[in-house]
Design brief:
The termini are far apart. It contains eight helices and 16 strands. The chain is globular and about 70 Å long. Helices cover about 25% and strands about 20% of the residues. The protein is an alpha+beta fold and about 375 residues long.
């Protein structure tokens, strides 16, 4: 009977594909059925769980135990979509994440994420006779951010690398297409905190208004290339008008939004030294150089970008455990995605540089003492 109730509870809480009031089968014998009020799929999970408790007359403690058992037993979905593999060996799997894909599924029974794509990839290799362990994703990228995503095929290695991420012993470099004409290099070190009246947004903490929720944050920026003010590249439909995003932190009077020909644009490398939510997006916007396509903090133009123009092009581990080969001395590199390359071309910014050449520019700036 316990197993029957567990199945019914997990079905109502997670799957939710029957109309309200329909009888839920508790076992193979119809006499064992019981009526449970299923909940609309649009309800958030906590609300669904409340209704499950009421419908099945379960205590909070018992339902919590049942659902945790269910979650642990539910296998992850293997997606059929291809994986753009940057590097792979017996320990590591590194992929180039496309935009509009989540890093991990919202629930174990759902797919459509990079975790599910990686599982599908290794299971297909396993089916073809190649020994493959299930991969563990080691970090996250925002759904609309593209770039390097690293997995481990070894549980012990997974724990080691996740410690490196927590302790900021991983080098991460991002490329962003921004508005404005920034200096060759600059630093943003404004503290950040969650915006209490918004579900996901962050905000810059004003000096003197720090609280326990305030997090110190620091990002280095290197300008890679700039557009020519007022120029309209051959084949371009520019100049492009821009709109303000929802929570833009910059002074919009410094930009002529209606007359796009007065706007500068640039390609910037961002190097976060801390790992706050939305850190790069908010720091660069607060400095006056908002990212194109960033719906929260940037400047919007569907002609240029349908998502935030942010790409994680390099990731390098500072160390690996003894006995594990260092996967890449130079770091994992992901080429610029097509939508960002197209945006650069529309803005008259050189889009022919490879990420290796871009990384050379960044390393030159770092070694010059510009940030000392």
């Amino acid at each position: 009977r316990e197993e029957e109730i567990r199945r019914a509870a997990s079905f109502i809480a997670f799957h939710l594909c029957r109309p309200a009031g329909e009888r839920v089968r508790g076992g193979d014998n119809e006499d064992e059925d019981f009526t449970a009020l299923t909940t609309p799929v649009t309800l958030p999970l906590p609300e669904r769980i409340k209704i499950v408790r009421k419908s099945l007359s379960l205590s909070e403690k018992r339902l919590d135990k049942l659902l945790k058992l269910y979650i642990r037993s539910e296998p992850l979905v293997a997606d059929d979509q291809g994986l753009d593999v940057i590097y792979e060996d017996e320990y590591w799997l590194c992929a180039n994440k496309p935009p509009f894909v989540r890093t991990a599924p919202r629930h174990r029974f759902e797919g459509n994420s990079m975790v599910n794509r990686a599982i599908g990839y290794v299971r297909r290799k396993r089916a073809s006779g190649e020994g493959q362990a299930n991969p563990h994703v080691l970090h996250r990228l925002d759904m609309d951010t593209s770039g390097v995503l690293l997995y481990s095929k070894d549980k012990d290695l997974c724990a080691f690398v996740q410690t490196l991420f927590r302790e900021r012993r991983v080098k991460k470099h991002y490329l962003a297409i921004c508005c404005g004409n920034p200096p060759d290099h600059f630093i943003a070190d404004s503290a950040l905190e969650r915006k209490t009246d918004h579900e996901i947004a962050m905000k810059v903490t004003a000096e003197g208004e720090e609280s326990e929720a305030t997090k110190p944050s620091k990002t280095l920026f290197v300008t890679i290339a700039r557009s020519v003010k007022g120029a309209t590249p051959a084949g371009s439909n520019g100049p492009y008008s821009l709109r303000l995003s929802e929570l833009h932190p910059f002074d919009s009077s410094s930009m002529d939004l209606e007359d796009g020909k007065n706007n500068h644009f640039c390609l910037i490398c961002a190097i976060p030294l801390t790992g706050r939510t939305h850190q790069i997006r908010l720091h660069v916007a607060d400095a006056g150089f908002p990212i194109i396509g960033d719906t929260l903090y940037g400047m919007l133009s569907e002609e240029l970008m349908e998502r935030q123009a942010l790409h994680a092009f390099k990731l390098k581990l500072n160390e690996v455990p003894e006995g594990v080969p260092d996967p890449s001395e130079a770091g994992f590199l992901a080429p610029l995605p097509q939508d960002m390359a197209s945006c650069l071309a529309k803005l008259g910014i050189d889009n022919t540089m490879g990420v290796e050449e871009i990384e050379t520019i960044v390393q030159t700036a770092l070694s010059s003492g510009a940030f000392d």
